[in-house]
Amino acid sequence: MMVKVYIPRDMLAKALGADEVAEAIAKEAKTKKISVQIIRNSSRGLAWLEPFVEIETPKGRMGYGGVQLGDVKALFAADFLNGGKHKLSQGLVEEIPFLKNQERLTFARAGITDPVSLDDYISHGGFVGLKKALTLSGAEIVKEVMDSGLRGRGGAGFPTGIKWKTVQEAKGDQKYICCNADEGDSGTFADRMVMEGDPLMLIEGMIIAGIASGASKGFIYIRSEYPYAIDTMKEAVAIATKAGWLGVNIQHTDKSFTLEVRRGGGAYICGEETSMLESLEGKRGIVRAKPPIPALEGLFGKPTIINNVLSFAAVPFIMAKGAKAYQDYGMGRSRGTMPFQLGGNLNQGGIVEKAFGITLRELVEGFGGGPYMGKPLRAVQVGGPLGAYLSADELDIKMDYEAMAAKGAMLGHGGIVVFDASVDMAKQARFAMEFCAIESCGKCTPCRIGSVRGVEVIDKIVAGVDRAANATLLEELCVTMTDGSLCAMGGLTPNPVMSALTKFPQDFGLPKKKKLAAE
Amino acid sequence: MSQSLPQAKVTSDVEEICLAYGNRPDALIEILYDIQTKLGHVPESTLPVIAEALNLSRAEVYGVVTFYHDFHLNPQGKHVIKICRAEACQSAGGFEVIAALEKALKIKLGETTKDGKITLEAVYCLGLCPMGPAALIDGKPKAAIKPNKVNALVKELA
């Protein structure tokens, strides 16, 4: 009997040797004359267990974690193809607590299917949402998305339904759907995993957006740092087109939608939506002033829906199961689930999809198992390089847009980066300013020059030059950047800087705790 | 690479790439990637050719080439190591790995070794954040890099 062996084709699995392991298993099986079918599936998102090899057994899939080339012979000796015991055994995959305790809607197929198999996608609930959408009017689809409470997962948390409604009601001979897949925030990788692991779900979400708003053309703007996501998306677009899910007269209806994959040029700022539009038009990624909002004058001046990968990816579930099923998850005005991304110094990093309202402690200590190498946790940055640092005594905060904002922090795209006691927070603050200086598009002065001055002032504080006066200057500079910048790059860079300065003044050589003006 | 190619060949290659995108100016970034894949970098001599094909000014093309970190007006090393400098990798000892790489290669970030073999570049996040420090080496990802493994890694490329 043919044994099914699953080895992820995810970029992180590859970075840890999945390709070599897959090859070695195939070779060893051939030598031993055992018939195996190796399936390069998506990743479960249990990052610390990659390369994560799964074997299909009558009891269910058995997992082997962290498999290296040197383990392959021993795994065969332990009869792993029949679920045999080995030191890398993780038991039944579905029973691993990290996985079992999640509420996976967007990542429901993660690790289970072959990303570019149309059959796998359809047999696991794919295109049910789109089929439903094809029977509805644009306004009805928009209402469903609105009722679900879905908010933009890119970071700003703007209600997706309202954005869609604006474009749907806008007049225009041509409208566009743009997927912002320029996932540049450090500590975030959920977009990458969706594109590499379940690309047809993203395509389905974008087609639904097209039908809802009357847009016949879409673009997926993917950062060049994600070569596998680019390849997989292109492959999936071709597969979906061939099968009649994309193109003219989708599934023999009067609806048409085409998709094009575009690469970014390695500029962080192009994750800002107007900068992304400029880039899609082939120009320098210089931020546009708003208004006009892209929903009315977006790509090539036409009404445009711009959403993050995770926002589009949530839509097929909403259409298939109904707004209420999605709305039932979450708290307050943050409805549904969020694929949180655990990264940095943690024992167990990866994807944790949970309803909004879970605490940061449950995520980093419960799921993440705390920092590795035994040093205590000292700081957590939530929401990417523009997100605030939280200290170890703030971990009971609830992961919800409003609860985070009330603490001067932000949820952003759900990235969580953990630092242990060895971190120097003055260095982190300096890096935030330096990063802004490197990646600023240069259009507005507070961001372009403020960031350079920020690095200089922090250097002076650390060097002990007029510490108190320079700390005040840094605060004033941050206020100027917050109030005067054109977009979030310059506007939010003060978040990590001021939170580091306020919560960890000793790292700057400053004596007592300073109070934030807002407190 | 391009030095060995006569200008006439470079020009016709570039024109062909532009035409493959219907000479559409919005495809400029894709066009630049294709040129870079073909020639190794985007030589300045190609800019007027691109400008002519896409009906843009030379300044506009130059502006785009120099705005994006991915495009290079000058040749890079035979091998390119893009090492992550962002926060998640920092928390896992990323700066120590960068220091070890700089020491092993005797160059700084953004430089190429004297023999033209290896270019060391900074990148800001590869999305491998739970298992940092991470790098892209000639386009192939590598995660959980330890400073003491850097020498072996560099040797593999030499």
Structure description:
Chain A is an alpha/beta fold. Chain A has 22 helices and 16 strands. A five-stranded mixed beta sheet of chain A has the order 2-1-3-4-5, with helices on one face. Chain A is globular, with a radius of gyration of 24 Å. Chain A has helices at 11-15, 18-31, 72-77, 97-100, 118-123, 128-134, 138-148, 160-169, 190-197, 199-213, 227-242, 273-280, 309-321, 323-327, 360-367, 401-406, 425-439, 445-448, 450-463, 467-484, 488-492, 494-503; strands spanning 3-6, 36-39, 53-57, 60-64, 89-92, 176-181, 217-222, 258-263, 304-308, 330-331, 334-335, 337-344, 350-355, 377-382, 389-391, 415-420. In chain A, helix 7 (138-148) packs antiparallel against helix 8 and helix 9 crosses helix 11. Chain A has four domains: 3-100, 3-Layer(aba) Sandwich (Glutaredoxin), CATH 3.40.30.10; 118-327, NADH-ubiquinone oxidoreductase 51kDa subunit (Rossmann fold, 3-Layer(aba) Sandwich); 337-419, Ubiquitin-like (UB roll), CATH 3.10.20.600; 425-508, de novo design (two linked rop proteins) (Up-down Bundle). The N and C termini of chain A lie far apart (67 Å). The mean pLDDT of chain A is 96. With 158 residues, chain B is of the alpha+beta class. Chain B has two domains: 2-67; 79-157, Glutaredoxin (3-Layer(aba) Sandwich). In chain B, 44% of the residues lie in helices and 11% in strands. Chain B has helices at residues 7-20, 28-39, 47-54, 58-67, 87-91, 94-105, 150-157, and strands spanning 79-84, 118-123, 135-137, 140-142. In chain B, strands 2-1-3-4 form a four-stranded mixed beta sheet, with helices on one face. In chain B, helix 3 (47-54) crosses helix 4 (58-67). At the A-B interface, helix 1, strand 12, strand 16 and helix 17 of A face helix 2, helix 4, helix 5 and strand 4 of B.
